[in-house]
Amino acid sequence: MPELRRDPIIGRWVIIAKERGKRPSDFVVEREVTKGGFCPLCPGNEGSTPPEVLAYGRSGGGANAAGWSLRVVPNKFPALIIEGELDKRGEGIYDKMNGIGAHEVIVETPEHDLIPPEMGVHQIELIFKAYQERLEDLSRDARFRYIIIFKNQGAAAGASLEHSHSQLIALPIVPHRIQEELSGCQRYFEYKERCVFCDIIRQERSQNIRVVCENDHFVVICPFAPRSPFEMWVLPKRHSSSFLSLGEEMFGPLASLFLETLKRLYKAIPGVPYNYVLHTAPLRMQELEYYHWHIEIMPKLTKIAGFEWGSGFYINPTPPEEAGRFLRNMEVENG
Predict the structure, then answer these.
(1) Tell me, what CATH number does 202's domain have?
(2) Taking a C-beta distance cutoff of 8 angstroms, is the pair 49, 40 a contact?
(3) CA-CA distance, 60 to 178, in Å (whole number)?
(4) d(CA 310, CA 123)
(5) Is residue 111 part of a domain?
(6) E strand residue ranges, the chain
(7) What does the angle CA 323 – CA 327 – CA 330 come to, to the nearest 5 degrees?
(8) Is the CB of residue 205 less than 8 Å from the CB of residue 219?
(9) What's the confidence (pLDDT) of residue 24?
C-alpha cells in the first residue's frame, strides 16, 4: 500500500508509491553523448573565462594560466551581477530590487572527462576547501545574506558544460527553501529544546535502516520522506549550523565519505544524473543552536509534472529503506 510521509523539518508531504517498487536496475539512465569541441574550462583556455578569483595547485607562473588543480571564476553569463546597489523599491503591492549578487563557477579538476566519483579524495577535499574560502570572502559583502553552492551533474540535471564544475550564487535575500528549514528547525527547538537534525542523526544511527555509510565525523542517510529515489543527506555528527565553522582538519573526512557516497550511487545506477546543494546558515547567523548544515544529494530519476507542481507533493517509487539497503550493500573502493 502507498504511504504518505511527512518531512519532520519543513512539514512537506511525499507519497512513497511502494507498489511501483523501483530497484536501481529499473531506472533507465540514457547514456549522454559527448559533445566534444572547445571547452572554456580546460587548461590552456583560461583567457575564455573572466579572470579567476581563486586557484589551487599552480606552482610558479602568473594567474589565469595553466598548471592549476582547481580554479574559481566568475560566471561569464551571471544570473546576478556584483556591481551596483540593491535599490529596493515598491511598485504598488509588488516589491523589487536590482539583481545584485555574485555568480561563480568552481572548475573542480583540470581533466575534462573526470567526474567526481572517479576523483581522488584530495581533489574532493580541494573542492570543499574552495567552497569555504569563497563563502568566507563573499560573506564580507554586507549586501549578501545567503550564498548557495550547488552542482548539476549531467545534462538531465541541468549541466550545460561537460567539464566537471559546481556553482555558487550569492543572494541579497535568504531563499524561501532555506527559510522554511530555518523556521521548521526553530519551531522544533522551541518545543523540544533540541536540534531536529541531531535527533534525526541519533534515530537513524540507532535504527540503522536508512544509513548509507558513515565515519567518525559524518553520516550519510536516505531521509525518511525523500523527494527522489536514492536521495541522500550528508550530515556532520557534531552539531554545527554553518559550513564556515568546519575546521580544516575535517575536509579530509568529509571528502572521503562524500566520495564513497557518490561511488555507491554510481555503482547502483551507473551514469546517474544528480544535483547536490549545500545547506548552511545564512551569513552573519553562523552559530544557531537549532540549525544543522548538511549537503542534499538528489538523483534525477523522476519527472516533476502537473501533480507535483499543483500540490507540492512528490511521488517517490523507491522507499528510502530499500534505497538505503541497496546503497549500503554496494562494495566500493575507498580513496
Answers:
(1) 3.30.428.10
(2) yes
(3) 41
(4) 41
(5) yes
(6) 3-6, 13-16, 54-56, 70-74, 89-91, 94-96, 102-107, 146-153, 165-171, 211-214, 218-221, 232-236, 274-279, 294-299, 314-316
(7) 145
(8) yes
(9) 72
Q: So what's the pLDDT on residue 22?
A: 65
β-strand 314-316 against 274-279: which pairing, if any?
unpaired
End-to-end Cα distance, the chain = 41
CA angle 303, 24, 300 (to 5 degrees): 30
Residue in 162, 125, 153 with CA at minimum distance from that of residue 257: 125
Range of the domain at 92: 3-328
Is 335 within a domain?
Answer: no
Domain count of the chain?
A: 1
Q: Which residues are catalytic?
A: 165
**Do the domain assignments include residue 333?**
no
**Residue 76 maps to a domain:** yes
Q: What is the mean pLDDT of each run of 10 residues along the chain (335 residues)?
A: 92 85 71 80 94 89 88 95 89 92 97 94 97 96 96 89 96 95 97 96 97 97 96 98 96 97 94 96 90 97 86 90 93 73
* Per-residue model confidence (pLDDT) at position 13: 93
For the chain, the helix, strand and coil percentages under 3-state DSSP, each to the nearest 5: 30, 20, 50
Phi and psi, residue 299, nearest 5°: -60, 145
The radius of gyration computed from the CA coordinates of the chain, to the nearest angstrom, equals 20
